[in-house]
Amino acid sequence: MSENTVKTEAGARDELHGVGVSPGRVIAPLVHMAPAVSEPPEGDPLEGDPEAATDRLKAAALAVKAGLKERAARARSESAAEVLKATALMAGDKALVKNAGKLVTEQGLSPERALWQAATAYADQMRAMGGYMAERAADIEDVRARIVAELRGEDAPGVPQRREPFVLAAEDLAPADTAVLDPDVVIALVTQSGGPQSHTAILARNLGLPAVVAVDGVLDVAGGASVFVDGATGTVVVAPGDAERDAVLAWQRASEQLASFDGGGVLSDGTAVPLLANVGTGDDARAAAEAGAEGVGLLRTEFCFLGRDSEPTVDEQADAYAEVFEAFPGRKVVVRTLDAGADKPLPFLTDATEPNPALGVRGYRTDWTTPGVLERQLEAIGVAQQRSTAEVWVMAPMIATVEEAARFHDLVVAAGLRVGGVMVETPAAAITAEQILERVDFVSLGTNDLTQYTMAADRMLGSLAELNSPWQPAVLRMIRATAQGAAAATELGGAHKHVGVCGEAAADPALAVVLVGLGVDTLSMSPRSLAAVAAVLRGVDLAEARRLAELAVHATSAHEAKDTVRAQLPVLAELGL
Ligand code: PEP
Ligand code: MG
Prior knowledge:
Blueprint: E1 14-17, E2 19-22, E3 25-32, H1 50-74, H2 78-91, H3 94-107, H4 111-129, H5 131-152, E4 166-170, H6 175-179, E5 186-191, H7 199-207, E6 211-213, E7 226-230, E8 235-238, H8 242-258, E9 275-279, H9 282-290, E10 296-300, H10 302-305, H11 314-326, E11 332-336, H12 366-369, H13 373-386, E12 391-396, H14 402-414, E13 419-424, H15 427-431, H16 433-437, E14 442-445, H17 447-455, H18 473-493, E15 498-501, H19 509-518, E16 522-525, H20 530-537, H21 542-553, H22 558-567, H23 571-574
Parallel strand pairs: 3-4, 4-5, 5-6, 9-10, 9-16, 10-11, 11-12, 12-13, 13-14, 14-15, 15-16
Antiparallel strand pairs: 1-8, 2-6, 3-7, 7-8
Helix pairs in contact: 1-2, 1-3, 1-5, 2-5, 3-4, 4-5, 9-11, 11-13, 17-18, 19-20, 19-21, 21-22
Bound molecules: phosphoenolpyruvate (PEP) and magnesium ion (MG).
Magnesium ion binds at residues 397, 425, 446, 448-449.
């Protein structure tokens, strides 16, 4: 465990700073992510009795199996439970333990080495079979690491299992780590790298966990040290004192106040600002409906495709989409067509060897290289729409030209879908919004990508977090250009051209005010953020939102924009946001 990598003196107060990506304040012991399990040396000899060693092997495999099953029973989603149950089955595979036992008794290897070797042979065989079996090879390697860690008395790799709540510190988190994370035990996340728009940050907001990324030095903090984490300001304090304890209490009081969201997104003058949810699955959608979301502003359909090495059938897709629609009868659900590529690669669609995947064949562009997938997806959305009363809108990600937008709209119409729009995630789309909106029904600003492309700063990089802020005045100008384009297109065509925001910017309550002031109609976010955004919007009228938007656009830096706006919204401090 990295408790050994201690550089800070135990008990000494220290303050670290990063980028706050999900609000909340907690104090708890810090636990480091367990490092990868090292391979036992080749030929590592058995010490002691072979029979006792094989018994230890069996016991370790059973303990791993039992631990995984227990976690599956506590998993927060069906998909996480399935992953854990499948891994538990592999850990309990008798053939694996038997083969390893033979290596102990016949070749005199240590149980750690024997298990490692037997599991590796198993994984290699599966890889050679190709297809689905090859994908399971990584799961065998995961089981291998877990059993070896158990034999050594170490933490299994990944998120350490504890019963008491803790703050998890890591270099960065992989989606697989976060998928099975228990938010009752892991109560905050602090990473050394990772950007504010990374999918880990998005997940933290989904789970409602305070999170700070790009915290230089967090890996040097002693494991077990008490730390204070403020996910709004990005502050991490080692050995916190009374001030931090008071801040945690204030946050607890404020979150009680924010606990109820009545579904109403409205300004103080009565202007409605519908607040929608970003979801990926039926589970998410049901939780969003329960949290009071008025509808779905972004259904990330790639979640239906992730982990697949072939395209799901039209029926499979239709079932997945229908599950989301069912959660919002009569309500708006904006479905985004597949956004594969960059940080969300798909083996059957994207080219893993591209030198710059974020600038490569991703999103809508995969239709150029793999035609047919998009049409079949639109067909599936149409089938799901037939089965529900939800008001289904469809949009394409990563649009850069008017032609692309027009062609996508044609495909939407051809599929019998009623409302077709595109995401504005590139500066090209933002500055041609008027022409785009003459051809499509609506746009939705994907501020995560729009920020990375406007600022030419990879959204995954913690070192560029400063540039990668949607508060950057250049990004705000892109948003304003989009809203102005929509207003011009509305005037020209008569029908209202709707502008939504579905990037993480919408979940920042102060920025939400600015977005409304810039002319955005609806905001879509992770359901956890709805109450805070609603509470702040209720305190301003449209004229004030416009005034604050002007101030932000004319600031000379992201910091200045943010600080100026926040200073004029005292409700933020009152609510601990
Ligand atoms: C965005 O880019 O803002 C967006 C909503 O899409 P994603 O985060 O899935 O890339
Ligand atoms: Mg995007």
